[in-house]
Amino acid sequence: MRYLRVTLEFPARVRHPMHDFLVTHPEMEREELWSWRFVGEMPAMLFRVVGPLEPYKQRIQDVTPVDDCTLTAVTDNSFYAFVRAEPTSDEWDWILAFAHESIAVLPPVLYTDDGAVAFEVVGEPADLRALLGDLPADVDATVDRLGTDDQRRSPTADITDRQREIVATAVALGYYDVPREATVSDVAAEFDIAPSTVSTHLRKAEATVMHDLIATGRHRDRR
């Protein structure tokens, strides 16, 4: 068995309405799919959402494929969403690409505010190649990491070179000091790029490290 970490880029025309809401609403940060199963013929999914609850609640009430949704606040800016919904036709097009005998998706599936979906999947090499080949042509797939044992990678292994470079500069400038000695704008000035771009790189790197640390801790606890 091998595993890969893959990022799927979805153009706006094929995104699920709630993923599009995540992209277009300025206060929404990310959505993590942690569990999914079929209740009869209707998929039931558990999401953890980082962002304000009320705008999400108002938007999802108007989404036709959603049959039922229960929201439970966790913090002031995060909540769980238990959703029963029929996938859209565009979603089925890429979901069916995972219908291979050995394929298993490892939660969480991370929906980002830039229109991408990132996750890890394990399976036999032939099935992993078939998966990538079966994805719809309008979904851009990038393999971020390929390996044989995802539990042995370091917490920073999935950070891209660009993210690592920006995080290192942020550390050197004092962005992570307490109290903070530098701002996102200070880091952006070092690269001559927009502060929003730096913020995106930092949040993605932080999310990757945190998810991997939690996954590694759970693995050690089970041994």
Question: Can you characterise this structure?
Answer:
The protein has helices at 17-24, 53-60, 89-95, 125-134, 161-173, 184-191, 195-222, and strands spanning 2-9, 30-39, 42-50, 66-75, 78-85, 104-112, 116-123, 140-147. With 223 residues, the chain is α+β, with helices and mostly antiparallel strands. The protein has an eight-stranded antiparallel sheet with strand order 4-5-3-2-6-7-1-8. Helix 5 (161-173) packs across helix 6 and helix 6 (184-191) crosses helix 7. The longest helix is centred in the last third of the chain and has 28 residues, at 195-222.
Q: What number is the mean pLDDT? A: 85
Q: What proportion strand?
A: 25-35%
Number of alpha- plus pi-helical segments: 7
- Give the terminus-to-terminus CA distance: 20 Å
Would you identify the regions where 5 or more consecutive residues have pLDDT less than 50? Answer: 216-223
Largest sheet: 8 strands, antiparallel
How are strands sequenced across the largest beta sheet? 4-5-3-2-6-7-1-8
Q: What would the principal axes of the Cα set say about the shape?
A: globular
| SSE order, one letter for each helix or strand | EHEEHEEHEEHEHHH
Radius of gyration: 18 Å
Number of domains: 2
| Approximate helicity band | 25-40%
Structural class estimated from helices and strands: alpha+beta
Total beta-strand segments: 8
